[in-house]
Amino acid sequence: MLTETHRGFKIYVPPTDMDLGPHILLNGIWETHVEKALLRLLQPGMLAVDVGANIGYHTLTLAGAVGPGGRVHAFEASPGLTPLLRASIFINGMTPGSRCTTSRRWTARGW
Among 26, 29, 78, 96, which is least packed by CB within 10 angstroms? Predict the structure, then answer.
């Protein structure tokens, strides 16, 4: 399912998810305390890493914070979530990195 975060990023959420999905679908938010900390620590042009990126909620926050001059490396081990992560990065117009490896790493330029 496609929805939007409270920051205006589009994100794909698995329709059967009963954890973060309902929060993002209804309110567009997830773990606001984590999001606030990330935004406080990151600056444009920085490199950020999201390990256990899930569907990419924090990946999108990181990309927004580091901007087009920065980079975000997102890692997700679950083969069921990786396509949603990729799709969320793509639909937001974030330029994908040069490779997506079998380790399910996804690299994108910031936005």
Answer: 26
What average pLDDT does the segment 4-33 reach?
Answer: 96
Residue 84 corresponds to which tokens in the numbers above? 């949603």
Q: Residue 104: name the closest of 77, 83, 69 by CA.
A: 77
Contact 25, 13 (CB under 8 A): yes
Range list of H helices, the chain: 21-27, 32-41, 57-66, 82-91
- The Cα 30–Cα 109 span in angstroms is 22
The whole-number pLDDT of residue 102 equals 24
| 8 A C-beta contact, residue 63 and residue 85 | no
Contact between 67 and 111 (Cβ < 8 Å): yes
In sign, the C-alpha dihedral spanning 73, 108, 104, 2 is positive
Q: Which residues pair with 106 in a beta bridge?
A: 74, 100
**48/42 Cα distance (integer angstroms):** 8
| Predicted pLDDT at 99 | 29
